[in-house]
Design brief:
- It is a single chain.
- The protein has about 230 residues and is α+β, with helices and mostly antiparallel strands.
- The protein contains 6 helices and 11 strands.
- About 45% of the residues are buried.
Length: about 230
């Protein structure tokens, strides 16, 4: 990830994969994420920054250029300070034209920070700093057998945005637009490695269909960028 001009970085809590690896409970994450900056100028709207990240497109790496802060649809309930959530699709998009942005999130294993475009512990430019993951509590419950449903739900309501990689299906002719964020959780380290090697949304979706990852998880989150 690269910041330009007035861009800034924020240190945030680590996602579930790192919590599991280090033996730290999700309850700690709940306390930490409550102090995590939402990266929002108002509820559901991100601070406008200018910067770059990389992404995967048809077997190659490409660059995103960000110029606007994130948008999260307030018509979908979220307990996160950013008002972003994962688990339910948006009802009202910020524009009529948008394309899907798939992000892969490692679950149950760690990935070195330098091997992720948006690593755990660092909020990428124009991304939200927090997100409500409580709708995913049933799926995440097996990772935390010592926590009650209520404890896990409380921990996930204002969670620090997890580390991830980006995958797109087209470039929108290089023109900036809003992108609909869709999450794919990866629980197998070898599958995660293969995804990074193929650098393809088409390959990613084949793995989803084959059941080698979670299903595609909808969100109320949009990011705004152009693709080189």
């Amino acid at each position: 990830m690269r910041f330009i001009g007035s861009g800034r970085t924020r240190i945030v809590a680590l996602f579930a994969a790192i919590l599991l690896a280090t033996g730290i409970g999700v309850a700690v994450a709940a306390n930490t994420s409550s102090k995590t900056a939402s990266n929002a100028m108002s509820a559901g709207r991100g601070i406008d920054e200018f910067g770059l990240t990389k992404a995967f497109f048809k077997g190659h790496k490409t660059e995103f250029t960000y110029t606007k802060g994130f948008f999260c649809d307030r018509h979908i309930a979220s307990a996160a300070s950013s008002k972003c959530e994962a688990g339910t699709k948006w009802k009202h998009a910020p524009s009529k034209q948008h394309d899907p942005l798939y992000i892969t999130v490692p679950l149950g294993f760690t990935v070195p920070a330098m091997n992720m475009e948006c690593p755990s512990g660092l909020v990428c430019v124009d991304h939200p700093g927090t997100i409500d993951l409580s709708r995913l509590e049933p799926a995440l419950k097996p990772l935390y057998p010592t926590l009650t449903d209520a404890q896990l739900t409380a921990a996930l309501k204002n969670f620090a945005t997890p580390g991830h990689q980006h995958y797109i299906t087209d470039r929108n002719h290089g023109k900036p637009e809003w992108w609909d964020v869709r999450v794919v959780g990866v629980t197998d380290k070898s599958v995660y490695r293969q995804l990074n090697q193929h650098k393809s949304a088409a390959y990613l979706l084949k793995q989803v269909k084959a059941g080698k990852t979670t299903g595609v998880i909808p969100t109320n989150l949009f990011l705004f960028f152009g693709v080189k």
